[in-house]
TrEMBL record:
A Pfam family annotated for this UniProt entry: Phage_BR0599
NCBIfam families named among the record's database cross-references: phg_TIGR02218
Domain (Bacteriophage phiJL001 Gp84 C-terminal) ranges: 181-263
Name of the protein in its database record: Bacteriophage phiJL001 Gp84 C-terminal domain-containing protein
Organism listed in the record: Paracoccus laeviglucosivorans
């Protein structure tokens, strides 16, 4: 490629299938079935690519635009872990191009009318802990392939309507038959409205005559509105007693409840 005809082109693909393309060239480019727009939706700093197993990383910055990446979508987490590809392309002949980065969006921060997003390379998962964790509590996530519990089983989820909300606190109507605390450590899923598809982790679950009162660990990016439908999924504190009595799933318990405590390991040994 000739240096004077090289441009950069970015493609971002969300989990819901939406794909956006951007380029630093002054005209639109098209390849890979994507139209790359010459606007301020996205630009990038220098790509840092390490040899061996080090993590490739860079940073993307851009202006918030209704026609591209909106602030509401970022707040709602719809761009979290979006697939990212970066090409160097000859704008005079787009068939002459090379893919120089592939990864996904990491942490996103916002300030005023702009955003900044960390880009993480394909080797990022190598930083994650591998193998089993030996701990008295279960290492599986409720409903995953290790836990094997069927979350669709009767009694372990419920749906209701938002009656009140201020972000981290919601009051729902239409949910009955579950004692207080049943959904603590579980999930809240928004089924309708502008925030549909968002999920939150439940910190507090209270049952009262006024309705089901919930407190979330963190506020959802977009607040559900009165009348939106919500699904609650039962929570698990990963204790063996909970697995046995609440979920009847002790055969799949992935913890080690009979491990000696740390106090036993460091206690002085007395010869008898």
């Amino acid at each position: 490629m000739k240096g004077e005809t090289i441009a950069r082109a970015w493609a971002l693909a969300r989990a819901d299938g939406l794909v956006l393309g951007f380029t630093d060239h002054d005209r639109a480019l098209r390849f890979e079935g994507i139209s790359f727009r010459p606007d301020a939706g996205l630009s990038a700093r220098a790509v840092v690519q390490g040899a061996g197993l080090s993590v490739d990383n860079t940073e993307a910055v851009g202006a918030l635009s209704d026609s591209a990446i909106t602030e509401s979508d970022l707040m709602a987490g719809r761009w979290d872990s979006a697939d990212v590809r970066l090409w160097e392309v000859d704008w005079s002949d787009v068939a002459n191009r090379s893919l120089i980065f592939r990864g996904h969006l990491g942490e996103v921060s916002r300030s005023g009318g702009a955003f900044r997003a960390e880009l993480r390379g394909l080797s990022e998962p190598l930083n994650q802990t591998q193998g089993r964790v030996y701990h008295p509590r279960c290492s599986a996530e409720l409903g995953d392939a290790k836990c094997r519990f069927d979350l669709s089983a009767t009694g372990y989820s419920a749906e209701g309507l938002v009656q009140e909300t201020d972000g981290q606190r919601l009051v729902l109507t239409g949910i009955a038959g579950h004692y207080a605390g049943w959904f603590e450590r579980g999930q809240l899923v928004v089924l309708s409205g502008q925030a549909a598809g968002l999920r939150g982790l439940i910190k507090v679950d209270l049952a009262s005559p006024a309705g089901r009162e919930l407190g979330l660990w963190t506020s959802l990016g977009l607040h559900p509105k009165v009348g939106d439908r919500i699904r609650l999924i039962a929570g698990c504190d990963k204790r063996p007693q909970t697995c046995r009595m609440k979920f009847l799933n002790y055969l799949n318990f992935r913890g080690f409840p009979h491990l000696p405590p740390e106090d036993w390991l460091i206690a002085p040994k007395v010869n008898r």
